[in-house]
Amino acid sequence: MTKYHSVLLGVITAIMTGTSNANVMFTPDTQNSIAMYMAQSTGDGTLFKLFAPNMWDFLPQTLFLVQYSQPTQVFRLDARINLNMVQNIGYNGGHGLSFFGIGISWDVALLQYHDLYMGIGMGPYMRDERDRWVDSRLVFGEKFFIGKNISNTLRGEIFTIHFSNGNFTYPNRGFNFAGLAITYSF
């Protein structure tokens, strides 16, 4: 490998995986966080429901998500890499739509203003079963969030999240949720 290739590889690696103690989604000098997410179903359908509350149709499903995160950077933007455990509970008319899943995801803070941040995230998840909305165990989660630093160790976020399989199999109606999260950095 030439010297040029080594330098280029080093620059790309630094941009993609650099860490920062000033990450807006973490307390300064912390390298870990645990988050608890709780959300209500906003119906099945398209990924665009993340940004279109006028399309939401609240259905009898509740989502619980526990997330462990570490700070990183993506193209010099504050980011976090996450290990997620998700449980969707369908009740009343939502029976047969419950699932448990494990996944990894990356969240990037696209905009920051003092203690506020806004970002997007995505990653693959493996579910325990198929259902009538999505006929695959592998799904992808896409998230939009707005967060605020509440104290030195706590952050609050409002978020929307979408799970689907990218039309690899049919049906692929997708799951959509909106909710609140609390994050503790340590």
Question: Which descriptors apply to this entry?
Answer:
single chain, 186 residues, mainly beta, Porin, 1 helix, 8% helix
Helix content: under 10%
Order of helices and strands: HEEEEEEEE
CATH level 1 name = Mainly Beta
Low-confidence stretches: 14-20
Q: What does it look like?
A:
This protein is mainly beta and 186 residues long. The chain has one domain: Porin (Beta Barrel). It has 1 helix and 8 strands. An 8-stranded antiparallel barrel has the order 1-2-3-4-5-6-7-8. β4 (99-113) and β5 form a beta hairpin. The radius of gyration is 18 Å and the shape is globular. The N and C termini lie far apart (40 Å).
Secondary structure blueprint with pairings:
Blueprint: H1 3-17, E1 33-44, E2 59-74, E3 77-90, E4 99-113, E5 116-127, E6 138-149, E7 154-164, E8 175-185
Question: Can you describe this structure in just a few lines?
Answer:
This protein has one helix and eight strands, in the order H-E-E-E-E-E-E-E-E. By secondary structure, the chain is mainly beta.
